[in-house]
Design brief:
Blueprint (H helix, E strand, L loop, with lengths): L4 E2 L30 H8 L18 E2 L10 H38 L4 E6 L14 E8 L7 H10 L1 H24 L4 E3 L2 E3 L6 H17 L3 E8 L9 E10 L6 E5 L2 H5 L4 H22 L7 E4 L6 E4 L10 H29 L7 H20 L3 H4 L3 E3 L2 E5 L2 E5 L2 E3 L11 H7 L3 H20 L2 H19 L3 H8 L5 H20 L1 H30 L1
Antiparallel strand pairs: 1-2, 3-8, 4-7, 5-6, 8-9, 10-11, 12-15, 13-14
Length: about 550
Amino acid sequence: MGCSSSRAADAKPPPSQSNGHANGANDDASVDKSLGKQEAADLISQPGDGVAGRTTEHYHDIVLDRFDYAKLDVEKFDGFMSSVEAPVNAMVDTSNRLNEVIVVAQEQIAAALGAFRVEVSVSLRGPPPVVVLDRDTVLLRLEKAEGVVPQPEEVQVLCASNPGIAAADEKLGAALTAMYAFLELHNKGVSQQGDNVAPPFPDCVQVDAVNEALTELRTALGSGYRVVLDVKPAALRNCKGLRVRLVKPIFKEGPEGVEYIDATLLDVAKTKEAKHIYHMLSRATDACEDVIRCMQAVPSDLYRFQPCKHHIAMEIRPEDKDDPHPALVTAALQSLKMSVNYANSQILELRKHAMHANGTTTVGTGLVGIFDEILAAQAQALGTGPEEAKASVKFEPSVRSLGEDVTLEMPVEVTGKEGGAAMKSMQEVAEQLLPAKGKLFYGALMSINEASMDIAPRYPRLQEQIKTLISQADTVFSNPEQDIKEAYPDKEAQDVEQLVKLAARNLQAVKDSAGVLDVFSKQVHGLTADLQRSCQTIKDRHQQ
C-alpha cells in the first residue's frame, strides 16, 4: 500500500537465495535467511513510510514503487483511491524515468572515463526472438593471503612488476567465455572442486582451459595473493532466463566508436570499488537466479520481458475480471513480481559501484569531460598542447532552470587553423572533432536534455491533481466506521474494525503520496546544482 522508495542497501534477499553474498565480504556477510518473501519485499518498499523522509546524498538514488491500496468494496473509498492511483502512478513513472535517464547518462560518462557498465540480458519473444539460457556462473575475487581485498594501488604495482599477470588474466577471461559457450551449447553444468572448476565429464577441454589459466594467474600473482572461486549454480539449466554482466568499454575507430566486453578479474581488482563490486555481483547473480525459479511457477503467457539493458523490465498481463487467476497463480505472480523488484534493487546497487569504480561520477562530470575532450582534440588538430588550444575554443555552457524544467545549453565555437572555417555548434563539434570518448559524453548529456523536455511539461498538471486529492482525503475518510457499516450492515464488529484500519492505512497512503512530488523535485534540483557547479568549473578553467 502506498508509495515508497527502494534502496538496495535496505533490502534483504528472499530465502531461496541461499548464497546471497560474496564469500569473505564484510558489509552484509550475515544476511537474515529466515525472512519470507513478503517480508523481504516489505523491506524493499515499506508501505506508508513516507518517501519524503527517505533522503540520500545522491539526487538519483531513490526509486519509487507504484501506488497501491487496499480495496474495501465501498464505492466512496475505492472510487476515491482509484482517482488518486492514476496521477500518483503517472508521477512515480515520471520520477523513475528521470532517475533512470540520469543513471544511464552517468554510466555512459563513467564508461568514457574507463569505469564499468552493468548489462542485463533477458530472453525476448521477438520478433526477432532473443534467447538467453540459464547456466552456471563462475565468479572470481582477488584477495591477499590474509583474506582481505587489496587496495587498487597494490594491484597496479603488482601488475607492473610482472607482465605475466596481465597475460594470465586475459587468458582466464577468454577461457571463461569459451567455457560458457560450450556449457550453453551442450546443456552441461559445472561445480566447484576446491579452488578449481569441476568439469561435467573427464577431459572437458573448455573447463580444463579455465583451470589451467587459473593456475597460471595464481602462480604469477605469487603466494601473497589468492584468487577465490565461487561457482553459482543455475536455477534451471538451459531454460530461458536472464543474466547480469559487468563490461568495460573498448574505444576504436569507425562509426561504432565503442565496444563493450566482459571485465576481467584484474580490471575490477585495480579499482577502489572492487570489494563492493565483488559483493554486489554475487548478490545480483543470486537474485536473477531467484527470478528464474519464480518464472517456472507462472504460465508464460501472463508476463513478458521488455528489451532493456539496464534492469529487468517485465510486463504483467492484466487479469481478466471475468476469468480471474486461480489462487496459486496469483500467489506465484506476486512472488515473481517481488523477485524482480528485489533483483532490480541489487542490479541498481551494482550499477552504482560499477560506474564509480574510478571515482565519483555525476552528469556534471560529463560536461567537464566534453571540455577536456574538445581541448585535447583541438590541440591534436592544431599541433599544440591543450593549454595553447584553449585560446581557440570558446565553450560557455549554462543551465536554464524554470521550475522543474532543466535545460543544458552548450554554446561553443572552435576556431580552425588559419583560413579554416570555425565550428559553431555542439553538434558540429561532436561530429567533426570529438573522438568516440567525447561523443559518449555528448550523447549522455543530450539524453538528459531530451528527457527533461519530455518530462517537465507533465509535472505542473500532476502536481496540482495530487495536491488537490490529498486536500480532499480527510473529508472522504472523515467517518470510515459509519460508511463501512452502511455498506455492510450485517458485518461483525471485528470485521468492521479491520476494514476501518484498512481505511486508515489508505488515508495515510494518500497523504504519503506527497513524497513522490518531493522526490522528483529533489532529482531536478540536484541535477541543476550538479550541472551549475560544472559550468562554473569550466568557466574557472577557461580563465586560468
